[in-house]
Amino acid sequence: MNLTQQDWTEQLENDENAVVLDVRTEDECSDGIITNAFMIDINKGQFFINEIETLDKSKNYYVYCRSGVRSAKACDIMNELGFENTYNLLGGFMQWDGEVVYPE
């Protein structure tokens, strides 16, 4: 499901079962990440699939990338793997105006 930043943020704030997933590259993540996000690079092919398959399918995943295209693809992949609740951030990190942290 594609959500605008406002809807994505509001839903995330009210979701006690939420996980934020950043599917950008490591270089892109050096520009900052959304608070509490963890990273799995979608460009890593089978590694991405393997990592996704280890995740708890009962959680609600809020997924983003740089512009919203790769995260939409990630949501599709996750849905095919049995995840029921994946939410894509329309516009991605480029249009994000919320809190940002920088990985160490």
TrEMBL record:
Source organism of this protein record: Flavobacterium myungsuense
Lineage, broadest ranks: Bacteria, Pseudomonadati, Bacteroidota, Flavobacteriia, Flavobacteriales
TM segment ranges: none
Name the record gives this protein: Rhodanese-like domain-containing protein
PROSITE patterns: RHODANESE_3
Residues making up the signal peptide according to the UniProt record: none
Domain (Rhodanese): residue spans on this chain: 14-102
